[in-house]
Amino acid sequence: MAIAAGAWAIGLVASMPSGPGPVDDTQIRAIACATKGRIKRFLLTSQTDSEAVVEHILRCGCDMVQLVDTVPVQTCAAIRKHCPDVLIIQVVHVQGEEALDVAKAAAPHGDMILLDSGRMDGPVRELGGTGRTHNWDVSARIVATLDCPVILAGGLNPDNAGEACRRVRPFALDICSGLRGPGFALDAGKLNSFAHRCDNTLTT
Fold first, then answer.
1. What is the CATH number of the domain that holds 29?
2. Which phi and psi (to 5°) does residue 133 adopt?
3. How many domains does the chain have?
4. Per residue in 91-111, pLDDT tens?
């Protein structure tokens, strides 16, 4: 459905401390193999240790790795060494103005920054899939400041996709819970509506 709707990439969510929709690594690899050459494939990993992240990437076979937690710079260096064809997307959870400094520090070590609405300081770390928006004014400042592509996530849906594009001007939008129906199944109608809203915004 994502490919038919014109999506640029799909996100394959591995084990997380919280949030809906994780997929086991065997299924992630099966999906990655089935879609190779047709769409970009993001592996969302909550691993932070260099060796664990590299092993996870090699096990799942995706084009890109989305680091949903803060990682040491050594982890990015290890990815560059052992997975040189894999692009690195570092997630920055926008909880306040400090996110700008966090994004500026992370940008030189990856290929893209993704702005999400997780909370790192709760009893259970929220690293995505919250269904919440964050302060888009901060996100817009980050987009304007950084030289690398910035992806916007967090609480997006077909009704606010156009506004998100206009206000933040991100490289891309990352959406999950806003396209789901009963049982957290992907809803084709919501997906196509989202794609249509994005297309209209980009052409006006």
1. 3.20.20.70
2. -85, 170
3. 1
4. 999 989 999 999 999 999 999
